[in-house]
Amino acid sequence: MNTEILERIMTAKEYQKKAVYALFPEEMSGHLEVIEKELKMMTAELVKAWVENGQSRADKNKSEESDHVGNHKQNSDRPNSMRKIDIT
């Protein structure tokens, strides 16, 4: 990403935060900081749970695939129920 665009996004984020803080009395700025910190921690926990859930699903799918492949190999050893018929 272009560094100039990234800098503009960061500046916009700064102004956005100042705008939200300006909506409340100064006495509440401490509360807003705590809320901001908690939201960041909640987001991190949510992302962590998604990653762990995704990994457990991937492990489960991998296990199911290996079971399927193993069953396929076992089934391929069975005699074929179809007969070959020569038509002359």
Count of DSSP H/I helices? 2
Q: Portion of residues in helices?
A: over 70%
The outline comes out as elongated
For this entry, what is the oligomeric state of its chains?
Answer: single chain
How far apart the termini lie comes to 71 Å
Low-confidence stretches: none
Q: Biggest sheet, in brief?
A: none
Radius of gyration: 30 Å
Strand content: under 5%
The average pLDDT is: 84
Helix-strand pattern, N to C?
HH
Derived from helix and strand composition plus strand pairing, the structural class reads mainly alpha
Give the beta-strand count: 0
Task: Explain what this protein looks like in three dimensions.
The radius of gyration is 30 Å and the shape is elongated. The termini are far apart. The longest helix is centred in the middle third of the chain and has 48 residues, at 29-76. The chain is mostly helical. The mean pLDDT is 84. The chain has helices spanning 3-22, 29-76. It is built from two helices and no strands.
Task: Map the helices and strands.
Layout: H1 3-22, H2 29-76
Keyphrases for this structure?
mainly alpha; single chain; 88 residues; elongated; 2 helices
Task: Quickly describe the structure.
The chain has 88 residues and is mostly helical. 77% of the residues lie in helices and 0% in strands.
